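Researcher: Here's a chain I'd like modeled. Treat it as a single chain, no partners, no ligands.
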Amino acid sequence: MNGIRNKTILISISFITILVLAGIAWGILNSPSTNSSENKIATNKNANSNTIPTNSLPTYRGDTYTVSYPTGWMTKKTTLDNDEGTIVTFSPEQVNAGQFERMSVETLNSQITTIGTLTQMFTILQYTQTNTTVAGINAMKYTAILPEQNSKLHSTAYVLQKNGKIYVLKLEYDQEETNTSLEDQFNQFIASFSVE
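Model: Modeled as a single isolated chain. Structure tokens:
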């Protein structure tokens, strides 16, 4: 009986630890940068089209990757502590009230963070997982619609690894219904991503 009780306590502590880590990661991703940041606004004459060729979109060049992002969006780079990596967040210059649309590319040091840790977090939060490829690299796609106080958080993440780096490409927005236009823009974001 004590063995079962000890296992239950251990599982509960593990679950709480993972939730705390997920909360810390979420806080880092959504907090203002204290290390290094840059803000850039992209403009383009074709901004009214939903299916803009990626070669006419603004392009962000990171240290090890490039990605095209929606016209009229800003970029913000955050450097994580302890050589963990960087997060580049893309968000509209004109914020849609209550939607908090954001795309991001996390570049994580695979010596510090493992894919297993990330996948465990998505599993605990009950994301749906599918296997896919991004930039010719095997990847895992995670999707979920999570309840919030006054809305729903739509969240999609692609996780892949190459050359000692883990890349997490994310779309998150708060809205009751699915925003198909934004989802299409994220599909272009994913299609344009390349690792150098």
